[in-house]
Design a protein that fits this description.
By secondary structure, the chain is an alpha/beta fold. Helices cover 23% and strands 24% of the residues. It folds into 2 domains: 177 residues, Metallo-beta-lactamase, Chain A (4-Layer Sandwich); 128 residues, Rossmann fold, CATH 3.40.50.10890.
């Protein structure tokens, strides 16, 4: 890659010299453009932040008092010698791909994305470009997502079975994006939906900006589990099996993640169930998105970078692995709450 390229990969993040800004930097910089609010993409310590209006509330909740500005999807902003615009990535509410054009050359940094319309996030929109930076979290052919309606049916069947046995159903999922997507899939006729503080605080932020979610109840220290029979509890994966979780008595645990497609991962997690659902693109989704961009040059970040890059090269793309500090989807996500939150 030429040092004069529109975007370069540095030890601080993805850098645009023409606009003197970074995209999703992992070290403090003066100006940061952020694709979405997950902790590996939106970090504390930047001089200023630019993100979509829909992503900013969660970022402020997580990062506190930051200097930040919002931008509409599709709005073109001139930053130095670069034209910049944000386009839906479909990953979580407010998530964006960032298009950067300099002298007629177009690059797109996709951040994290999925091509399935989950009915909650702004649906993914392919952006034509010459250079495309893609994740590869699930960049193996084994990762192929089932229809969301089938996953919802299996999820509700499991919850109803737990309720019939007098057990609380515990479901582990990211507090931002995955948890809200699962809520929309749950059948509230089965029982009440309870939430860990990290999930409920995120719910409040999203509700305040107009997102419609089912009714939920914060499962804090004041809540008595015996007063909420047949409940399902949504919590970050790190909270399952904790002292807090054990106060609910007899229970079953499940994880909702793309990693549940791998039998070995399911066994190691020691949960009772695994539901295969992800806010990242599967194998076919990654390939479809790349083809739709029309890009000749593909830069592969976090995930199965080597395997996925070799496949792209064999298929005729000019593809290469690039180093970043993005994490993609993990099963050990922290609560991702600001310090002091409960």
């Amino acid at each position: 890659m030429s040092k004069d390229a529109v975007l370069t990969f540095t030890d601080k993040g993805i850098y645009c010299a023409a606009g003197d800004f970074y995209i999703d930097p992992w070290r403090p910089v003066a100006r940061a453009l952020i694709t979405h609010g997950h902790a590996d993409h939106a970090r504390w310590g930047m001089g200023s932040y630019l993100a979509t209006h829909a992503a900013l509330p969660v970022m402020r909740h997580r990062l506190g008092d930051i200097t930040a500005e919002g931008i509409d999807f599709g709005e073109v902003r001139q930053i130095g010698g670069a034209q910049v615009s944000f386009h839906p990535a479909g990953h979580v509410p407010g998530s964006a791909q960032i298009r950067v054009e300099v002298g007629g050359e177009v690059w797109v940094a996709s951040g994290d994305y999925k091509i399935v319309d989950d009915g909650l996030s702004e649906a993914f929109e392919p952006v034509r470009c010459h250079h495309f930076i893609t994740e590869s979290t699930f960049g193996l052919p084994v990762f192929r997502w089932a229809d969301q309606r089938d996953v919802a049916a299996a999820l509700n069947e499991w919850w109803a079975g737990c309720a019939a046995q007098g057990k609380t159903a515990f479901l582990g999922a990211y507090a931002l994006g995955k948890a809200q997507r699962l809520m929309a899939m749950l059948d509230p006729a089965i029982g009440p939906i309870l939430t860990h503080g990290a999930v409920e605080h995120t719910n409040r932020v999203l509700r305040d900006q107009g997102l419609t979610l089912p009714d939920t109840t914060l499962a804090n220290a004041e809540l008595s589990p015996k007063d909420h029979p047949r409940a399902l509890v949504l919590a970050p994966p790190s909270a399952l099996g904790s002292k807090w979780a054990k106060t609910f008595g007899p229970q079953e645990t499940a994880f909702a993640s793309g990693w549940m497609a791998l039998r070995g991962v399911r066994r190691r997690r020691a949960g009772d169930r695994g539901f295969v659902i992800s806010d990242h693109a599967d194998w076919h989704g990654l390939l479809w998105a790349i083809k739709e961009t029309g890009a000749e040059n593909i830069y592969v970040t976090h995930g199965y970078t080597d395997v996925f890059t070799r496949y792209l090269q064999d298929e005729g793309w000019n593809a290469q692995v690039v180093p970043t500090q993005f994490e993609g989807e993990t099963l050990d996500a922290s609560t991702d709450e600001p310090e002091g939150a409960t």
